[in-house]
């Protein structure tokens, strides 16, 4: 009974940290930062720079001039078995030529490296090592004798590449920044059909979990009810 109470308390603290923050989303215990942006034509903007309304404990509504009269809705849930994060993205009345541009990185347990800015901390990206395949990737970080791994899944059709966390003035700048850097992040450009819901998933490597993209809608539905 005591063990169960401890687990519940730890999950509550994890959610408190997630619910208290705005964008970008930062996973607990230095397990990475997810930054999401929009691209319309040659213009791009991070969602944390847009007009943002927190509409619930786990939901956000985004408006911006790039979206015209449209809105983007973000809904999040905690993955209890893997200490991870699942994000559902949907929208209404959005431009037809809209793309999503996102980045993930800064896997580092040293809290002093993150600072107060909204961007992914370049200092926290040092020594992160990435392995990607199609729309999925793994980030390895930590001491060699205690190596940790974070796995990520993006929408099918995402074009993954390594980018330079020093160059985050806009999503497109980061995406085209190149991989020669001491602060690598993984970034992607995704041509989004706004009629669909799309999902992003980030979680610790765990023998209990091996997710694929097609599993994410059902996983989100199940976990969001907990």
- Write down how many β-strands occur, each being a DSSP E stretch of 2 or more residues: 14
CATH topology: Beta-galactosidase, Chain A, domain 5
How many domains? 1
Question: From the 3D coordinates, which CATH architecture would you assign?
Answer: Distorted Sandwich
Task: Tell me the span between the first and last alpha carbons.
Answer: 19 Å
Q: Return the CATH class.
A: Mainly Beta
Total of helices = 3
Strand count, sense and barrel status of the largest sheet are: 8 strands, antiparallel
Summing up helix and strand content along with how strands pair, one would put the structural category as mainly beta
* Order of neighbouring strands in the sheet with most strands: 4-5-6-7-14-11-10-9
| Content of β-strand | 35-45%
Instruction: Please tell me the overall pLDDT.
Output: 86
Inertia-based shape: globular
**Unreliable parts:** 1-21
Order of helices and strands: HEEEEEEEEEEEEHEEH
Query: Radius of gyration, Cα only, in angstroms?
Result: 17 Å
Q: Summarize the amount of helix as a percent range.
A: 10-25%
Structural features, described:
By secondary structure, this protein is mostly beta strands. The radius of gyration is 17 Å and the shape is globular. The chain has one domain: Beta-galactosidase, Chain A, domain 5. The protein has helices at 2-20, 171-175, 216-223; strands at residues 25-26, 31-40, 43-46, 51-54, 59-63, 71-79, 84-92, 98-107, 129-133, 136-141, 148-153, 159-164, 184-191, 198-204. Helix content is 14%, strand content 40%. It has 3 helices and 14 strands.
């Amino acid at each position: 009974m005591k063990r169960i109470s401890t687990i519940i308390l730890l999950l509550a603290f994890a959610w408190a940290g997630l619910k208290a923050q705005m964008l970008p989303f930062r996973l607990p215990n230095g397990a990475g930062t997810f930054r999401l942006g929009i691209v319309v034509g040659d213009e791009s903007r991070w969602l944390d720079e847009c007009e943002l309304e927190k509409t619930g404990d786990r939901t956000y509504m985004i408006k911006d001039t790039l979206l015209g009269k449209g809105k983007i809705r973000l809904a999040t849930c905690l993955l209890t078995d893997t200490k991870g994060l699942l994000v559902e993205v949907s929208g209404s009345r959005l431009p037809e030529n809209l793309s999503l541009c996102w980045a993930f990185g800064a896997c580092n347990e040293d809290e002093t490296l993150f600072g107060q800015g909204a961007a992914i901390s370049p200092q926290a990206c040092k020594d992160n090592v990435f392995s990607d395949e199609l729309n999925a990737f793994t980030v390895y970080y930590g001491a060699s004798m205690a190596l940790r791994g974070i796995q990520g899944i993006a929408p099918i059709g995402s074009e993954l590449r390594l980018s330079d966390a020093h160059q985050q003035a806009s999503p497109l700048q980061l995406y085209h920044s190149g991989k020669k850097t001491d602060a690598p992040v993984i970034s992607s450009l995704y041509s989004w059909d706004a009629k669909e819901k799309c999902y992003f998933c980030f979680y610790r490597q765990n023998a209990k979990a091996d997710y694929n993209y097609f599993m994410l809608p059902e996983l989100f539905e199940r976990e969001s009810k907990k």
